[in-house]
Design brief:
The protein is an alpha+beta fold. The chain is built from 1 helix and 5 strands. It comes from Paenibacillus ihbetae.
Length: 102
Amino acid sequence: MFEQELAAAQNQGGGGLLGLILPFVLMFVIFYFLLIRPQQKKQKQRTAMLSALQKGDKVVTIGGLHGTIVEITDDIVVLKVNDVTKLTFDRNSISHSVNANT
């Protein structure tokens, strides 16, 4: 009789372990699809936008400064803000590109 109770307790212990691990796995899956995956997509889009920048593009910096790209290298962007003012920025400080239609 004692052996049967021991075997039943061991079977319940295995199910208890699965019951403890399953919520954590489900939480990770939910976090992946709600937080991690969309963030990776945004990062890919941003990287593609930064690599597609070229001279003459109108851009907005993270600080909100609007300008037109005059010079561009791998990590530096020179923006023409008005007729005489040129400012140098890090390429990663570009927030987004602005279409000429807007």
